[in-house]
Amino acid sequence: MGLFTGMNISGSALTAERLRMDVISSNMANADTTRAEKVNGQWVPYRRKMVAFSTQPLSFRDQLAAAAGQGGAPDGGVRVSAIVEDDTPFKLVYDPSNPDAGPDGYVRMPNVNPLNEMVDLMSATRSYEANVTVLNANKSMLMKALQIGR
Amino acid sequence: MPFAIQPAGATPQTVAAGAKPAASAASVEKSFSKALGDAIQKVNDAQIESDQQVTALANGQAQNLHNVMIALEKAEITLRLAVEVRDKVISAYQDIMRMQV
Fold first, then answer.
1. This model's pTM is above 0.90
2. What is the pLDDT of residue A6?
3. Rounded to an integer, what distance in angstroms lies between the CA atom of residue B66 and that of residue A132?
4. Which end of chain B offers a freer environment for a tag, N or C, measured as fewer CB atoms within 10 Å?
5. What is the tens place of the pLDDT at every residue in B52-92?
6. Looking at beta carbons, which residues of chain B come within 8 Å of A124?
7. Residues near A144 by Cβ (< 8 Å), separated by ≥ 6?
8. Nearest to B81 among A15, A135, A146 (CB)
9. B14 CA to chain A: closest CA distance, Å?
10. Which chain B residues are Cβ-neighbours of A22 within 8 angstroms?
11. Is A42 exposed, middle or buried (0-12, 13-18, 19+ CB in 10 A)?
């Protein structure tokens, strides 16, 4: 429990939300990408990506202090532990003129739904704002503490 | 015991040592100066950290804008804390100096 523990926790949350925002940007940008990677000489469309959040593992110092019974509450920061791919099937669109169309005229499109991405985008933005608010509250608390005895 | 009346010749160090009988006068004085030095070092570290972050931002190497802002906030808060402590110390000193003898 340092002076800036709360700030560090909020900072980790801001970093995580930013990475989430980056992943959403990538999903949106690649909503029509039919050539993301080549598997066995065939182009595979872009797969939607998602972030998986997990609590930050305790540092060695915190674990030692906790084991010695002299540590306060450990840091409860968040981090992105993995970026996982969405396994839902690709959308099939009938477009024979597309260079990536199969023999039957259907094109496999990415499994990105722009509406879902917009909702995720709003969620990420609001979470970021919420964490900034927490950080500011933390700061104003510290500033108030400095006014004790004035 | 902590408020026992000291003999007139007692120096401030022995008064401080009287409050904590186990520590000798010299070690109390040393630990105070060390604590002060450490505190000032921490303030300086925060300033240097924020300076480096701003430089990284100006160079285009900063990964996250919020980390720069957090470093700046930390530097500001530690500096204000140091200023607050200095004000307290100076006002205590002035109170002593104004004492009627």
1. no
2. 87
3. 9
4. C
5. 999 999 999 988 899 999 999 999 999 999 999 999 999 99
6. none
7. none
8. A146
9. 28
10. none
11. exposed
Please give the biggest Cα pair distance in chain B: 65
Q: What is the pLDDT of residues A39-63, one digit of tens each?
A: 888 899 999 999 999 988 777 777 7
Best interface-test mutation with B: which of A127, A143, A147, A150 has the largest number of B CBs within 10 A?
A143
Identity of the residue in A14, A15, A146 whose CB atom sits nearest the CB atom of B84? A146
Q: Do A11 and B81 touch (CB under 8 A)?
A: no
For the four alpha carbons of A128, B69, B37 and B20, in that order, the dihedral sign comes to negative
Domain count, chain A: 1
Structural domain span for residue A51: 5-146
Quick one: pLDDT band at residue B2, thresholds 50, 70, 90? Answer: very low
Report DSSP state, residue A109: E
- Please compute the mean of the pLDDT values over residues A102-113 and round it to a whole number: 92
Q: Is residue A138 within 8 Å of residue A8, measured between CB atoms?
A: no
Q: Is B34 exposed, middle or buried (0-12, 13-18, 19+ CB in 10 A)?
A: exposed
In a mutagenesis test of the B interface, which of A18, A20, A136 is the best target, namely the one with the most B β-carbons within 10 Å?
A18
The alpha-carbon radius of gyration of chain B (Å, integer) is 21
How is residue B63 written in tokens? Answer: 């990964």
Distance CA A12, CA A54 (A): 11
For chain B, the domains span: 12-97
Comparing A75-79, A125-129, B81-85, the range with the smallest average pLDDT is A75-79
CA A56 to CA A78: how far, in whole Å? 5
